[in-house]
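Example 9 (inverse folding). The structure is encoded as follows.
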């Protein structure tokens, strides 16, 4: 079967890696992500991943406890590199070749991010994992996902969450919350819908990059997406 996308960017939050643990990385969850990624690599899809760090450290929460914001954001970016290495390890265990590329140089453990290099790896069938966000404080890994997806010409940004998609209100708190099948960038921004932060949405809007928000706890969803099935919520035009 011909996949619906040739190149996708998958955004995994740090929190998603925690699973039922209170902190850090759940071995079970990371292996599940790795095998779901392998499934679509085996279908011939080029896969890039941006990984968050919220399971370890977030600059904004650190700032609330007295950590200087810029220092906290640096700590947060380093946390994403820890997650990137864990994901790399889990994927390589399945026999898939990967590269971690970081926005903050640390060449003893990963390659520096260079757009052309990232694309070359993808063309060779390697899973590219982007660590350290965009490398600057005051940004999020959602913005990094939007930026990297645009830079590498990914056809879609697949944002993994714990719910089925985008809702008009928090579905965990409100039973009557309604899920959108499709929603526009401007509606997301105007209504303040919880998809990604405004910087990330604006970048996608300006560059016509569609976003699909889907439940990553349902195994097989990533495969369905690349098979062209409608899953989650599509954010575009
Ligand atoms: N961060 C940053 N610049 C970036 C990306 C991330 O400063 O380009 C920091 C920021 O402190 C953020 C933390 O890294 O809170 C972890 O990333 P994020 O909160 O986006 O992770 P997620 O919510 O996806 O787990």
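The amino acid assigned to each position is listed next.
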């Amino acid at each position: 079967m011909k996949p619906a996308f040739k190149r996708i960017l998958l955004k995994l939050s740090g929190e998603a890696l925690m699973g039922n643990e209170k902190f850090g990385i759940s071995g079970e969850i990371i292996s599940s992500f790795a095998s779901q990624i392998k499934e679509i690599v085996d279908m011939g899809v080029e896969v890039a991943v941006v990984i968050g760090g919220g399971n370890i450290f977030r600059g904004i929460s650190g700032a609330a406890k007295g950590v200087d914001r810029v220092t906290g954001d640096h700590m947060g970016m380093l946390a994403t590199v820890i997650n990137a290495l864990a994901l790399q390890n889990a994927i390589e265990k399945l026999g898939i070749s990967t590269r971690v590329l970081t926005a903050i140089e640390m060449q003893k453990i990963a390659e520096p991010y260079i757009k052309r290099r990232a694309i070359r790896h993808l063309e060779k069938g390697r899973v590219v994992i982007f660590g350290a966000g965009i490398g600057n404080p005051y940004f999020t890994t959602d913005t990094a996902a939007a930026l990297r997806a645009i830079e590498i010409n990914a056809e879609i940004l697949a944002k993994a969450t714990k719910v089925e998609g985008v809702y008009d209100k928090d579905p965990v708190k409100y039973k009557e919350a309604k899920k959108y099948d499709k929603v526009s960038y401007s509606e997301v921004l105007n209504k303040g819908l919880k998809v990604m932060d405004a910087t990330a949405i604006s970048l996608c809007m300006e560059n016509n990059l569609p976003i699909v928000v889907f439940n990553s706890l349902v195994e097989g969803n990533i495969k369905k997406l690349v098979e062209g099935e409608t899953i989650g919520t599509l954010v575009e035009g």
